[in-house]
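User: Please run a holo structure prediction.
Assistant: Happy to. Please share the sequence and the ligand.
User: Here you go; the ligand is magnesium ion.
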Amino acid sequence: MGEHNLAEILIAEQEIQARVAELGQQISTDYADKTPFIVAVLKGAYVFLADLCRHLNVLHEVHFMAISSYGGRATQSTGVVRIVMDLPASPEGRDVLVVEDIVDSGRTLDYILRNLHTRNPTSVRVCTLLSKPSRREIQVPLDYVGFEIPDKFVLGYGLDFDEHYRNLPFIGVLKPEMYE
Ligand code: IMP
Ligand code: MG
């Protein structure tokens, strides 16, 4: 599994599962009389989404948008955000719930939110598994946050390092010597 590239486990599998269940219950309560239009941001959110939606007991739709924000180096954003795959359905008049893996600088989410708001949704909320508040360059509204984490490059549970390790059931920290 290449775990020699891991410095530590930051969030254990059981801890993630317990928190995802709580988020699912909270979202189900908040959207009790609605049918949320989930916009999951590929690729990082797919593992989180799969677990989260199984804790939802409200009707909901799942749609995907693919965004690319990383260029040459694997652990640093270029700040240039592109839509690689757009939504197949319109969120107009819908209660949109954006599901993200991690909010770092906030640039990706800021771009997504601006884009979604041009399509006249009724409401937009954000659910992210992870947030690195110390890294924020653009303030973005987060409605549901799984865990706030320190400024370390993490992988697993959908998050990748150079497209690898998304399958790990826990959140691990990449060894610092892998950054450069
Ligand atoms: P932002 O635009 O700087 O907020 O970065 C958001 C995107 O960068 C996320 O959707 C991730 O794909 C990626 N990212 C940011 N931090 C990490 C990390 O620690 N591990 C893996 N991917 C990350
Ligand atoms: Mg990524």
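The chain has a mean pLDDT of 93.
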